[in-house]
Structures are given as C-alpha cells and as structure tokens.
Design brief:
alpha/beta; Alpha-Beta Plaits; 2 domains; two-stranded parallel sheet; 8 strands; about 10% strand
Length: about 280
C-alpha cells in the first residue's frame, strides 16, 4: 500500500501513517486466489508478508467531513481508484483535528481522531496524549522521497536515452555524409576522366580542321595559279587572233600555222567548260 498512496502535507502524513499503521506494509491483491498464490510464492523464499484482498474488503459508508478545525483523513490521501475501497475502510472514520479537545468531542461521535502533533482520541474511548517520536513515523515521507528520486531518475534516464538517440542520429547523418562524399569523389573522378577524353577528341578534331584548312589553302593557291595561266593563255590567243586579222590565211607560213593550231588546242582545254 505504501508505494501507492501520496500525502502532500508533511504534517498530515503523521496522521495518515498513525491511522493506517501496519496496513502500510501490506500487499494489495485482487481476490482470494491471488492472495493464496502470492503468499505461497513468498513462503517459498521465506519472506513473511501480509496481504489485503480487495474483493474481501467490505463496503464502507463514510461522510467526508470538512469543518473548521476538522478534516477527514481520507480526503488527504491521493491514491489510484482500485485502492479506494481499502482506504475507505481504514480511513473513512478517521479525522484530523486541530487540538485534543476537538478530538475528544468527535471521538464521542464514533470517529478515531488525531492531531498533527500525534495526540489521539479513539471512538473506543482510548486516549493518547503527550509528545511522540516523529522519527518513528517517516514511512510515507520516505516513500514520497523514494518516489521523487525514482521519478527524477526516470526523467534523467529518459533525457539520457533522448541524448543517445540524438547522438545516434548525428552519427548516422555523418556516416551518410561520408558515403555521399565518397560517391561524389568517385563520380567526379569519372567525370574528370570523361572530360579528358572529350578534350583529347576536341584537340584531334581541331587538328583535322587545321589540316583541312591547310589543304584548302593549297587548293586555293593552285586555283589562283591556274586562273593566272588561263588569263595569260587567253591573252596570247587574243594577240594571235589580232595578228591573224592583219594577215591572210594563205600567207601564213607552215610554222605559224602549226603555232596557231597549238594555241587553239591549248585555248580549248582551258575554257570554262573544262572541269577546272
């Protein structure tokens, strides 16, 4: 039970602990079968325990009293719903009073009453006064501190797991970046090789173009020389025709006739109808 209840006010913890007494150390089970099984397992390992069975706990009708100087102990306890039946049975008739006189008055009305200093008046007529050793009533406080430490530990553990997750994510991202870098370097190496091949091909083509331009230049030079020869030949033919015009055909010598025929043949070969 101790691990499943909370009391915020430290002064009220004393009252609740005194009222619950040994019940704080009891284990809560659902039914008689569960109780038997649990007790049998504890007996095997020789651990003595007490249990409270929820189904065997009777229903308790209680009225939450909240008057000046008087509070119901049940209202001071925070617990899960499945424990309410047990707590009603043990705290439903327990009151926290400001002083012993108020305790005595309500005890006569059938309540077990406590002050926050440890004085008490029971419905059975038992009276307890004077100071008590508060160190003997620290179970709820220690349980609360244990619970707080456990919560802080769980929070720290959760933060640690979160940080470890962040670190793992960073490591995964770095690994991915390294892989991308490796792929990029491999890709750029291939690209550089292809670029060198293309450059070599361009250089070869440029060399071929230079050779073609050189051949074209030579052809143009040859064509210029041929055109010059054609022009000179035409001028010779024209001059001879003019000379022939001044002479009669009959008056030509044999050598002149032969020269005339040769020039005519040469002119015929150099006319534009030829391939050149």
């Amino acid at each position: 039970m101790l691990d499943n209840i909370e009391v915020d006010n430290k002064a009220d913890r004393l009252v609740v602990e005194m009222a619950l007494g040994g019940s704080l150390n009891c284990f809560i089970v659902n039914n008689g079968k569960d109780a038997q099984n649990f007790l049998a397992r504890c007996a095997q390992i020789q651990v003595p325990v007490d249990v409270i069975c929820i189904e065997e706990t009777g229903d308790t009708n209680c009225t939450i009293i909240n008057q000046p100087g008087v509070k119901c102990a049940l209202a001071l306890v925070k617990a899960p719903g499945w424990l309410s039946k047990v707590l009603k049975q043990r705290l439903g008739k327990v009151l926290v009073c400001d002083n012993l006189n108020t305790c005595e008055a309500w005890a006569k009305r059938g309540y077990n009453c406590y002050t926050r200093s440890g004085e008490s008046a029971m419905s059975s007529g038992v009276f307890a006064g004077g100071r008590i050793n508060l160190n003997n009533y620290q179970k709820i406080t220690l349980a609360a501190e244990k619970w707080t430490v456990q919560q802080e530990f769980e929070k720290a553990q959760a933060k640690r797991e979160k940080c470890e997750g962040i670190v793992r994510s960073i490591v995964d991202e770095i690994t991915k970046l390294e892989e991308d870098k490796r792929k990029f370097k491999h890709g750029t190496h291939g690209s550089r090789h292809e670029l060198r091949v293309h450059r070599d091909e361009i250089a070869r083509i440029e060399g071929d173009i230079a050779e073609v331009e050189e051949v074209i230049s030579q052809l143009e030079q040859s064509q210029s020389e041929i055109n010059h020869d054609i022009k000179r030949t035409r001028e010779q033919v024209k001059r001879l025709k003019e000379e022939m015009a001044t002479k009669t055909i009959a008056g030509l010598t044999a050598s002149e006739q032969k020269q005339m025929d040769q020039l005519a043949q040469k002119w015929k070969r150099s006319t534009p109808s030829s391939k050149m």
